[in-house]
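Entry 12.
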Amino acid sequence: MVNINGNLVGDDQATQAISNRGYAYGDALFETIRVNSGKILFWEDHYFRLMASMRILRMQIPMQFTPEFLEKEILEIVTQNNLINSAARVKIMVHRVIGGLYTPTSNDVEYSIVASGLDSAFYTLSDDNCEVTLFKDHYVATDLLSTLKSNNRIINVLGGIFAKENGFDNCLLLNANKMVVEALNGNLFLVKGTVIKTPPVSDGCLKGIIRTQLLRILEKLSDYTIEEASISPFELQKADELFTTNVIVGIKPITKFRKKEYDTNTSRRLLGILNSRIRLGD
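Predicted 3D structure (tokens):
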């Protein structure tokens, strides 16, 4: 089942018009959310990021788009797909209504919500190798639009194709200043000794939900120093660890970049703390 503007329809009936602005112009935003046994993880952060993104794109926020309304809509689609007692991936898509060419005739919006199952209720650390490379064909702009989860993710798509064609598990994206911004599917963290760095949002990286959680966690851990600072490609091979984060997998260690292989000790520790916060309902 799929939720389209509050109406539940079967997957085979969940169609959009060819003139849908999300399809025609990429005039849309999305949030990817993890739901564990009926609990939406980090819901407040997701909600406020979506609202802030809609304001930046000059979308009219409907009066009914309260946290309570959207939470109810999410849990309903999870229930209808028989996922309420397991782990689910939920995607909310918000797009401007049909009308106009580049310039819309209205800033009103419509929405859809889909859900699919996940294997584990908590984050686990994969033992799979993850070898990455730099994607240099195109660069991320260092502006506010790059930080949004919009439908305009063509750099990520091309980076994914490049990684697949060249035998890599992921790519690291660069901005116009040749600084490392993020991975194709998550934020980047670099560990060197007791210092943990992650690129600042001003470099063009996504304001990720797990990135936000880890910054809060690291602020309270006295044995680490956290820095939001630009990361040059030269720093990657000097690091002790590299890992990426997103709300579906949690933390994903990078095991190799060029000839450098990395530890996973800090990744494992932080994942344990993250899971503990989830269990405690934080």
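Annotation: The chain is about 25% helix and 30% strand. The CA atoms of residues 209 and 247 lie 6 Å apart.
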